[in-house]
């Protein structure tokens, strides 16, 4: 009887079911497996949110191209301009990442072709104009974090007042981005998204637009310097 118990214990040790102290190792394995499952779930969640963020930036690029106000915020029209470097990423195809830099790079034919081929905007530098005020910010699709920002000129002269004004302007920038995301989600969940919006975006990507629009865009970029 004792020999059988010893044989079973040895077999369990060889299988890795028990450690050198005779204690079970299954609890640790189950814990490790649970952690792996949580990591996988977290990765899928972030990846899904990143994809939505890329759709948002791509949609925003398309909507901003004409240069019209995208929405009204506190009684003033908000316009958005993509300026400088943009990074595009995708999951499939021969090219999984592409970057373009230049004043008109975001609205260039090369970027449109890349979008038409399946890439989406992952990060970009944007200018937000609300009335006479101008913000600049770099956005990343993963969390829509503001990586760096340039605030409008301060109106106050006292140092303490300037700190408070900067905080208010930074908060206003956050509200502008939130308003744009809300507008995107409204469009994304509407019945017209698949029937009208996506086909319209595809036509834009394929260059079915007047060249004068790009000329006007170039003038606006130079004017806002």
Primary descriptors:
225 residues, alpha+beta, 6 strands, 6-stranded antiparallel beta sheet, globular
Task: Describe, in plain words, how this protein is organized in 3D.
The protein is of the alpha+beta class. It has one domain. Helix content is 53%, strand content 20%. It is built from six helices and six strands; from the N terminus they run H-H-E-E-E-H-E-E-E-H-H-H. Strands 1, 2, 3, 4, 5 and 6 form a six-stranded antiparallel beta sheet that branches. The N and C termini lie far apart (89 Å). The mean pLDDT is 79.
Short description:
The protein is α+β, with helices and mostly antiparallel strands and 225 residues long. It has helices at residues 2-15, 26-64, 109-116, 159-188, 192-205, 211-224; strands spanning 71-73, 76-89, 97-100, 120-130, 133-140, 146-150.
Overall structural domain count: 1
Number of helices: 6
Shape: globular
Strand proportion: 15-25%
**Could you give the count of β-strands?**
6
Span between termini: 89 Å
**Roughly how much helix do the residues carry, as a percent range?**
40-55%
Identify the quaternary structure here. Answer: single chain
Output mean pLDDT.
Answer: 79
Radius of gyration (Å): 26 Å
SSE series: HHEEEHEEEHHH
Main sheet specs? 6 strands, antiparallel
List segments where confidence is low: pLDDT < 50 over at least 5 consecutive residues: none
Give the class from helix and strand content and strand pairing. alpha+beta
Which helices and strands occur, and which strands form pairs?
Elements: H1 2-15, H2 26-64, E1 71-73, E2 76-89, E3 97-100, H3 109-116, E4 120-130, E5 133-140, E6 146-150, H4 159-188, H5 192-205, H6 211-224
Antiparallel strand pairs: 1-2, 2-3, 2-4, 4-5, 5-6
